[in-house]
Amino acid sequence: VDGNVPGAVDASTVATITGALADINTAYASSGFSGLGDEAVTITDTTVAAADLLTLNSATSGIITATGVETVSGSISDLTSINLIETDQGNAGQQIDLDTDYTVTITDTGTVAALTLTSVDAAVPGAITATNIDKVTGTGSQIAAAATADENGTLILKEDFLAEVSAGVAVNAADLNTISARTTATIDALGSTAINGTASAVATALADTEITHSSSFDVTLTAGTATATDLAAIEAATSATIDASAITTITGTIADINTIYASSGF
Questions:
Q1: Cα–Cα distances in Å, from 81 out to 66, 113, 144?
Q2: How far is 82 from 98, CA to CA, in rounded Å?
Q3: Average pLDDT, the chain
Q4: What radius of gyration do the chain's Cα atoms show?
Q5: How crowded is residue 252: how many other Cβ atoms within 10 Å of its Cβ?
Q6: Rounded to an integer, what distance in angstroms lies between the CA atom of residue 212 and that of residue 192?
Q7: Are 192 and 171 in contact (CB under 8 A)?
Q8: Per-residue pLDDT reduced to its tens digit, 231-241
Q9: For residues 135 and 123, what is the distance between their CA atoms, to the nearest angstrom?
């Protein structure tokens, strides 16, 4: 209609617009129509860009039905903006109505905070593909949460994503081990002030060549049983004194156990 009418088309009586998202945005952007701005919209695409959805959202105050959309792609910023608008997938009445199982592809590259990724993961009902992201940063527990989401299939990370653990704070050895299980790349824990946990978990983390750490980190071992071999490995990895006061049982050969008791490292 717009291309065949020389003057402006009065569209003020239009209640609903249906079609492909690109075509609908083109109609709203055209100077050939007047009276548009409060229509309900139904999108027929199965794949859309988050930025295009937000463009449409700013063009109409009506409800945008996008329940046929299976995949939304875009930056974390745009996806977050959509999630703030669409807070209850599958239920009509919000400005943008998406389905209960749509998936997301994140287009960001480079470095992204783990907490940002898990926040998007919590808001999106389907799987999130984030394989363009090279490095994930945050505390050990935050990165481990992203790694766990990857294991569960709700957040798909790069197989060799780098991990950088926040400096100046302690990290749980179990979290380091969880992260290491989901990537083949380096986990940078050089700035961690302490590596804490069970003797087994700490020893496992220290033996992992993917995990880098300083040679002077503190260690506080949690309650339970420790092998003399694990304790010896921990002592060899750090110059700091190891707090083993919570250990209730030590197992191993008598020679190894006596070596631990004779050590000044505990």
A1: 16, 17, 25
A2: 10
A3: 94
A4: 27
A5: 17
A6: 10
A7: yes
A8: 999 999 999 99
A9: 22
Q: Please, which contacts does 96-99 make with residues 24 or more away whose CB atoms are closer than 8 Å? A: 96/53, 96/57, 96/64, 96/66, 97/63, 97/64, 97/65, 97/66, 97/67, 98/66, 98/67, 98/69, 98/72, 99/66, 99/67, 99/68, 99/69, 99/70, 99/125
What's the token pair of residue 115?
């907490």
The pTM for the full model equals 0.91
21-29 helix and 50-59 helix, angle to the nearest 10 degrees: 40
Counting every residue, how long is the chain? 266
246-255 contacts: CB < 8 A, separation 24 or more?
A: 246/220, 246/221, 246/222, 247/199, 247/221, 247/223, 248/223, 248/224, 249/224, 249/225, 250/225, 250/226, 251/225, 251/226, 251/227, 252/227, 252/228, 253/228
User: What is the rounded distance in angstroms from the CA atom of residue 51 to the CA atom of residue 35?
Assistant: 24
Spatial separation of the C-alpha atoms in residues 236 and 239, rounded to whole Å: 8
Mean pLDDT of 1-27: 80
Q: Which residues contact 91 (CB under 8 A, 6 or more apart)?
A: 97
Would you state the torsion angle of the CA atoms of residues 257, 259, 265, 266, taken in this order, to the nearest 10 degrees?
Answer: 30
Contacts of 198 (CB under 8 A, 6+ apart): 173, 174, 221, 222, 224, 226
What are 75-130's pLDDT values in tens digits?
999 999 998 888 677 666 678 999 999 999 999 999 999 999 999 999 999 999 99
Q: Name the packing angle between helices 76-85 and 50-59 (round to 10°).
A: 50
The one-letter amino acid at 76? I
Rounded CA gap, 217 and 223, in Å? 19
- Paired strand residues for 135: 111, 162
Q: How far apart are CA 25 and CA 2, in angstroms?
A: 13
